Amino acid sequence: MSPSRVLVLNSGSSSVKYQLLDMPGGERLAVGLVERIGEETSLLRHTPAGGETRERDGAVPDHEAALKAVAAELAKDGLGVDSPELAAIGHRVVHGGKHFTEPTVVDDAVLAEIERLIPVAPLHNPANLTGIRTARALRPDLPQVAVFDTAFHTTMPESAARYAIDVETADRHRIRRYGFHGTSHAYVSRETARLLGRSPEDVNVIVLHLGNGASASAVRGGRCVDTSMGLTPLEGLVMGTRSGDMDPAVIFHLMRVGEMSADEIDTLLNKRSGLIGLCGDNDMREIRRRIDAGDERARLAFDIYIHRLKKYIGAYYAVLGRVDAVAFTAGVGENAAPVREAAVAGLEGLGLAVDGELNAARGDGARLISPPDARVAVAVVPTDEEMEIATQTYALVNGSGNLT
User: Fold this and answer.
1) Could you give phi then psi for residue 223, rounded to 5 degrees?
2) Helix/strand/coil (H, E, C) string of 100-133?
3) pLDDT tens digits, residue range 306-317?
4) Which one is catalytic: 149, 226, 324, 384?
5) What is the pTM of this model?
6) Active site residue 77
């Protein structure tokens, strides 16, 4: 019997999230997180299937030490990285540019291209590279598969992907709309079709990935035709700390009139804008609590957030022409009923509505929250990026290519 386990690694700048899954069924054998890598006190949290969570404090100086610690924890459960049952290690890579349109087995040329993309993903690609290199050293005999956040969006037509700037300048500096959260949009659009009892090729879906980072996508027949994030994850929806869409001239104004440096403006737009910039909170639960208490600043922040979200729903409805479903996912999308209700309020003419009782009810799985006779289904579909990475990784190394 061929190996069937896939270890999924999501290496951030100071953390490593991981899951070990048995494919193709997707049974989770272990999940865990190493955080505060490189700090005085790091934390490893590991949970085997059906077992108690184990926590370990202590210094984890770098990603190599982190992955060795992960391997040690897995070995305690008989799930070691050296197991012959391990088929591959799947890695989340944030930016794949135009070149990587599918999951890819990593070799030296692939590593070099990911490294070449660091200027357009300076916060993410270096950490992703470190995770891949460390895993290759631990298991040089094993396929290492890169699954790119941008890959799902490479099906966008040039009319959606290009900015209206000088073509030679854009091409020289690789300026175009790449999009992000692609593994989530791919998974959720496919699961939405399954929820409707239809094939992904027959369904048009607007996916709203609403977390601290937020993005929307228009998916026609399983292929992305537009998405809200662009060259970087800054464009698009109002987010927890990011501004989203904005007149580019604001940057020049802040440089000339505010005498702010490029780095200061970068920090402002990425870390001190969005909900936190508008009202001082980026937790939607706290914002709703403040609204209920009569806080007008929180109310305005919420209204701006919803206004932008509603504009994207309408825009992507126009792009798709026919919409079969709108799917909410990620932390806010899955848990904030008031956001879902407000986002579709007033869009009844487009066939969109939510059932108040269904919307308010909590549930763990994918579910419809629209009235039974609604022309367009409105759904809550929990995202599972690790499962998507494992599915794509296993399909590649198993030679099936089947993601359904």
Assistant:
1) -120, 135
2) CCCCEECCHHHHHHHHHCHHHCCCCHHHHHHHHH
3) 999 999 999 999
4) 149
5) 0.91
6) no
